[in-house]
Specification:
Elements: H1 9-20, H2 26-46, H3 65-68, H4 73-85, H5 90-110, H6 137-147, H7 155-168, H8 172-176, E1 183-184, E2 189-193, E3 199-203, H9 206-218, H10 246-259, H11 269-284, H12 288-295, H13 300-303, H14 311-319
Antiparallel strand pairs: 1-2, 2-3
Helix pairs in contact: 1-2, 2-5, 6-7, 7-9, 7-11
Length: 326
């Protein structure tokens, strides 16, 4: 997951804590490790602990506790400034700042290494709220029509995949990880493992249940591989009769978008998650808290990006004013 030999021990202990106690996902650990490596390489330069000119070749494995204790808020600000001057996106800087804050909080609260937290008053850069890209209702129907095309030998599987994305707003990793026994056919719901290894329930509408049952009727029952990915338990299988991969699902959606005449540079698997959330909010009068629960967001602020309105909604709002006809 990460190369321990390239890290000072205090980074390794933080990553171990994040894995075992905070139950962070492998992707989160990878990001933490990358962010902290970059930060401490910069600190090596900041405190003149290296003469290496190539940033990527700076060795932080022997970064001392004494130098760690020298780090102040001004040094962290210097690092953030370095990121900005190298065209780092505000969202990227915000992630690195979050990692630094969590890391120093760990050192102060969970170890005896530091008594004061230099990142305590570290602020996150203001992020522009961008309206997420999503398919219109008509374009979503086009995509489903393409997915159900009987000329595709995997049409039941691919249609079920597309239906779940567009109806449930699940993440790619969640869909790939679905096992057959995760589905409760009586209650029309399934359990998925979301971000941060958190389990949540997704309720399935009639379209999802029909698509899943149609696929299960043709899903291979013999010759399925028994491997470390528990392919024999997986809902969605590849043509090699093993759990379908992220890349294969991405290709399926890419191919469908292209056949539907939709912009493959603009839309992707993750945009289908945006689409599901937006359609539910715009057409289903879904409460923002219910949408937060459905999407598995920790913060309501993340869900609020789907509460954008289109021009028709604005016009309808004005027309529905009780004073409009006076």
């Amino acid at each position: 997951m990460f190369d321990r030999d390239k890290n000072p021990e205090f980074i390794n202990s933080f990553l171990d804590y994040s894995i075992t106690i905070l139950n962070k996902s492998p992707n989160s650990i990878k990001e933490y490790n990358y962010d902290l490596n970059m930060f401490f390489k910069y600190m090596m330069i900041e405190f003149k602990e290296t003469t290496e000119k190539d940033f990527d070749k700076i060795d932080i494995s022997n970064f001392s506790i004494d130098t760690l204790k020298k780090i102040k808020l001004d040094n962290i600000h210097s690092f953030v400034s370095y990121l900005a001057s190298n065209n780092s996106k505000p969202s990227t800087r915000a992630r690195k700042i979050s990692t630094i804050r969590i890391f120093f909080k760990y050192l102060v609260n969970k170890t005896n290494i530091l008594e004061e937290n230099p990142a305590q008053n570290l602020e996150t850069p203001k992020l522009d709220k961008r309206i997420p890209k999503y398919l219109s209702l008509d374009d979503s129907k086009k995509l489903l029509d393409v997915a159900s095309n009987e000329d595709n030998r995997n049409n039941e599987r691919d249609f079920a995949i597309t239906t779940l994305f567009l109806n449930c707003g699940m993440r790619l990793s969640e869909l790939v990880g679905i096992n057959i026994n995760d589905i409760d056919h009586n209650e029309c719901k399934m359990t998925v493992i979301g971000k941060g290894n958190k389990e949540r329930t997704i309720y399935l509408n009639s379209a999802c249940m029909r698509a899943i049952n149609s696929y299960l009727a043709v899903r291979p029952k013999q010759g399925i591989k028994k491997d470390s990915r528990n392919s024999d338990k997986a809902l969605f299988l590849s043509e090699r009769k093993e759990r379908i991969s992220n890349r294969t699902v991405q290709y399926i959606i890419y191919k469908e978008l292209k056949q539907a005449g939709l912009d493959t540079k603009k839309y992707s698997v993750h945009k289908l998650r945006h689409t599901a959330a937006t359609l539910m909010y715009q057409y289903g009068n879904v409460d923002i808290r219910a949408l937060q629960e459905l999407l598995g967001h920790e913060s309501i602020a993340t869900t609020e990006i789907y509460t954008h309105v289109n021009n028709d909604q604005v016009r309808n709002a004005v027309e529905s004013n009780p004073l409009a006809n006076l």
